[in-house]
Amino acid sequence: MAKSVRIPRTGSPRRALTQLATAGATGALHIGTDDCLYLFAGEVVFAESGSSPGIGDLLTASGRLAEQTWLAALARGGAAGKADVRPGAWLVQQGHLTHGELELCVLGAIYDAAYFALGSASAMLRFVDGETHGMGAVTSVDAAVLGKESARRRKLLDEIYPEPGLDHAPLLPIRRPPTPRVVLSALQWEIVGRADGALTPTALARALGRAGYAVLTEVRRLAANGLVALPAGALPLPIHSGRDERPSRSTPPLAEPAAKPRVEVPRRRTPVEPDGPAPPIRASVPAPAPPGSLPALPRRAPGERLPVLPDPPESTSPPPVPADEALLKRIRTALKALR
Predict the structure, then answer these.
(1) Which of 224, 244, 267 represents a domain boundary (last residue)?
(2) What tens digit of pLDDT does each residue of 50-67 get?
(3) In a shared domain, residues 130 and 48
């Protein structure tokens, strides 16, 4: 039997989740106004966040399910969780999804929503004992593992570009890239093509049917490469593009190195006469013979054929050794790493 746990009204969401998981609680932990973690016997079975797309957004916006199919699953499966058949189970029974697809989708939604729900150091907390979600318990995640993964993801974002303001600011791609060559991933291409200066990264994730954290990761990478406009007050990182860095107008020019003193060599005004006659210059190459002294070339009679030369002897040297493809691939990989 689960122990009754009282959590503070305001506090750390991650600490409250640990307390509920230790007590083996079953219910819903509401964090703020938009985030919620659902627990069953101390394990997280579902998660929702206003900053991450839901399962319906992921399945319909990506084209995996039609919107009418998802609405039918909510209507027939019971969105409030009171029906005998859950929406996910109905989709599997009707053949719209496999059980593996449903489990992976729910698992990704849990990690994605938990990243935003557990991100704040302090928030309003409220636990409703026995509350369940309409999707039911498709899969479960250990609360400690979920907390560590959320912290790892946050650290990874800071390693890419330490500017949290990008996660909530409207995304605006720059008009002129800072480098002559730009390489984008498939998700970065979708983000740049959909960004209009009004949608935030979380709104873009919902519109594209992508995980919210995945979009945040690519937005940070775009910012690190100087391809998106930064929010007000953000400090840009230096971009190492490999091109020649020219000094700006505000940077004072470097001092030129001091010129070496020029040494004047004294010249003689009076020519110096040699003591004796100069020796004759002797050429080491003999002079060519006059044209008339060379023998005449033999002339070929009309109709005469050129003599047939014998075939050159076959070379006794061993055949060339074919190139080692494995060695060439290793050399190519090493050269790419030096760029």
Answers:
(1) 224
(2) 999 999 998 998 888 999
(3) yes
**Whether residue 183 sits in one domain with residue 196:** yes
From residue 320, give the alpha-carbon distance in Å to each of 24, 251, 315, 330.
73, 59, 12, 21
Question: Among candidates 31, 32, 30, 36, which has minimal Cα distance to 54?
Answer: 36
Domain tally, the chain: 2
Angle between helical axes of 99-117 and 143-160 (0-180°, round to 10): 70
What domain range is 38 assigned to?
10-158
Residues 279-296 as b or e (16 or more Cβ within 10 Å = b): eeeeeeeeeeeeeeeeee
Phi, psi of 231, rounded to the nearest 5 degrees = -70, 165
Q: Residue written as tokens 């954290």?
A: 213
- Model pTM above 0.70: no
C-alpha–C-alpha distance, residues 178 and 228, integer Å: 11
Same domain, 106 and 46: yes
Task: Using alpha carbons, select from 10, 29, 17, 41 the residue that is nearest to residue 151.
Answer: 17
* Per-residue pLDDT tens digits for 78-92: 544 444 578 888 999
Establish if 282 belongs to a structural domain.
no
DSSP character for 173? B
Pairing, β 43-48 against β 123-129: unpaired
In a domain, 71, yes or no: yes
